[in-house]
Amino acid sequence: MFSYRHAFHAGNHADVLKHTTLIALMKYLTQKDTALTVIDTHAGAGLYRLDGDYTETSGEAQEGIFRLLSEPKTPAAPAKKAPAGTKTAATGTAKPAAAPGWAPALQDYIDLLRGLNPQFAETGNIAHLKIYPGSPFIEQQFLSGRDKLKLFELHPTDFKSLSGNIEQLGVGRQVAVSREDGFEALKTFLPPPARRAMVFCDPSYEMKSDYGRVATCMADAVKRFATGTYVVWYPIIPRPEAHDLPRKLKTLAVKASRSWLNAALTVKSSKLTTDTSGEVIRPGLPASGMFVINPPHTLKAELQAALPQMVALLGQDRNASFTLEHGG
Ligand code: SAM
Question: In whole angstroms, how far apart are CA 108 and each of 122, 142, 202, 252?
Fold first, then answer.
C-alpha cells in the first residue's frame, strides 16, 4: 500500500498543473475577510529537495519544473475541436510563436518558487532551484491569521517529514497535521465554522479503490457543505477507473447544481513504445487533470492563459495539448 512517495514525483509536469492551479485558487480565496478553512486530505511531505536522492533518481522534475524554466516562453496555441456537451473554454495543442512573458498564474507559481529558493531568485539559474514546495507549503503561504489549514498524511515517513517541516514554520495551531485517513477525516470538518472552505484531494491512486473513494468522498462533502470549493487532482492513464473519475465528478456537480471546471494537460502520448532491442518502454504519466467544484469565477481565465504555455513548454511530442471545460 505504501510504496508511493511523492518525493519521486516532486516538480513533475503534473505538479506544475496542480500547483499552478492551487496557487490561483488560494490567492483568490484568501482575499475575502471571512476565515477560510483549507483541508488537504493527502498532504505528502510538504517540502522536497530537487537535488535529493528520490528526485534525482526519477528525473521527473526534469520533465516538469526544470523544463518549464529552461525554455523560452511561447504563447497560446490554436483551438482544437471541443468535446460535445459542455461549455469548453479552450482546447489547444503546442508550438506557437513568441509571447511577451509568463501567464499571471505561472508567474505566481514561479514567484513562489523564488521565495523558497533565494539563490535561484537572485541568479535565475535553474541549477540553484533546490527546494520544491508541496501543497501544504503552498497553501500555508497564503493564509492570514484567521484562516486554518488541516493536513492529513498516512505514510509514516512522510507524516514525520511533514510534521517537522510544518513545525519549522512556527505557525502554531493555525496548521494541524494528522496521521489519519484524509477521506474519512474530511467529514468531521464540514461544514467549517465560518462556512468557507477549500478541500484539496490529491491521492496517489496507488490503489484502484482510490478512484471510487474520491468520488464518494466528494459526493459526501458536497452534501455536507454545498458551497465549499472542492479540488481533485487525477491522473489521465489508460485505465477505466481513471477515465471515469472526471465524468463522475461532473455528474456529481451537475446533480448538485454546482458550477465546475475541469483542466487537463497532456505532455506526451500514452502509447507503449519499444527500444532498439525490442524492450517495451512505458511512457510514464502522460497527462493529468484538475477538477474543481465551485471554482472561483477568475479561475477559468487564469488557466486559459497558463495552459497553452504549459503545453508549449512541457509538451514532449505532437500529442501535447490541453482541455479546459466548465459548466454550471
Ligand atoms: N498533495 C501533495 C502535494 O501536492 O504536494 C502530494 C500528495 S501525494 C500525491 C499523495 C499522498 O497521500 C502520499 O504522500 C500518500 O502517502 C498519502 N496517502 C495515501 N493514502 C492516504 C489516505 N487515505 N489519507 C491520507 N494520506 C494518504
Answer: 17, 12, 21, 31
